[in-house]
Amino acid sequence: MTVPPSSNTAAPDQRPRLLDLLRRQIRFLHYSQRTEDAYVHWVRSFIRFHGLRHPSELVGDDVRAFLTWLADDRQASPSTHRQALSALLFLYQKVLHQDLPWLQDIGRPQSKRRLPVVLSHDEVAAVISALESSATPVHGLLARLLYGTGMRLLEGLRLRVKDIDFDRRAIYVRDGKGAQDRVVMLPASLEAPLRSHLAAVHAVWAEDRAAQLPGVQLPNALARKYPRAPQAWAWFWVFPQATLSLDPRGRPLPHEAGPPTPPRRHHLYEQTFQRAFRRALQSAGIVRQASPHTLRHSFATHLLMAGYDIRTVQELLGHADVSTTMIYTHVLKLGGGAVRSPLDHLGTAGGAMGLAGQPAAPGAAVPAGETPPRAPWRRVPDGTPPPRAREPSPPYTTTAGWLARAAA
Predict the structure, then answer these.
(1) Would you say residue 366 has pLDDT above 80?
(2) Does residue 124 contact residue 298 with C-beta atoms inside 8 Å?
(3) Which of 23, 296, 297, 302 is catalytic?
(4) pLDDT for the residue 280
């Protein structure tokens, strides 16, 4: 005789886990996938640091202990420290809905602005040449596009076919940093290579349509509004990945029902290009700590060196504030284009300066410890000496000089 199950048997707990609640709240606020990954990582590390205790049982001293461990033991940078703190504040305020006094007392470390690494024209050409001669020549085309337009790496990887306008020689950057759109130039030297590349990409798109694969990922709810848009050529990636992959947000959370979305074609992985870029640096013999983002820094610096207005460079880079673009002017100053070192005057013809502020005659070396002689006055034909030229005042003794020095 079969015994029926007891009616008071406890059903398994189907409540969502803390990390699932965290993911749901991040997606509710339309944060990016990278922010979701970073916040989940730091909250998981925080829980493991305190022996798998629930964050609702922890207090401000426990949060400070975790952040102190990051700063002292792990030697985390100020930006990493701030990211971990932001993840914990989001957890307590947005997920656990706790507005505790100690949340406002935790200080944020102040990160210092660093000068960007900038490559010269020859170094950029050497890196691009190394990428084009590698096993994946498309990396060379991507590097040319990043340097020629100043786009960020993810902005270049997320380009769709419809975003390239060959008639107007323009590229439309959609949903860039800060969810902003902008327009950048299409370099004339890239028009023919891009057309040839898109012809090869169209063959990949045609194979996907013949295999009846699901279309590419679309932002927001466009796939539901326009069911045929994911399979359209206009929405296909300019730099598609060779293999299929799963959308991380297409998989349902553990407490949710429903099958995951099938594999689909994604764009190139940024880690793949980053590794190829490091190998190209080694092949070119460049020892500086450069990255794909260095191409963006080089783009801005080289435009300023060519005489373009800083406001124009700001619009092309998509900076909200011109002070962010001003960092590249400091790179130009350090380049030595405006100030000549006094070391360059030593041991050169005409390097010794007289008291009148004029260089001495070539070959007239001044013995060590002696004062150079004053240049004799030349008399005009009528016998009267010419008026003595007034030496200009140092720049820091004038109002304009003080303002320029304060601005620098």
Answers:
(1) no
(2) yes
(3) 296
(4) 95
Please tell me which residue in 152, 158, 197, 264 is annotated as part of the active site: 152
Is there a catalytic annotation at residue 333? no
- CA of 200: how far to CAs of 144, 208, 243, in Å? 18, 13, 15
What is the CB neighbour count within 10 angstroms for residue 84? Answer: 24
DSSP symbols for 165-211: ETTTTEEEE-S-TTS--EEEE--GGGHHHHHHHHHHHHHHHHHHHHT
319 noted as active-site residue: yes
**Measured CA distances, 324 to 13, 115, 317, 336 (Å):** 50, 11, 10, 21
Active site residue 374: no
The verdict on whether 328 is a catalytic residue reads yes
Per the residue annotation, which of 50, 64, 174, 293 is the catalytic one?
A: 293
Beta strands per DSSP E along 233-290: 240-245, 264-267
Catalytic choice (64, 177, 209, 278): 177
Give the distance from CA 116 to its chain's centroid.
Answer: 10
- Judge whether residue 4 has pLDDT over 50: no
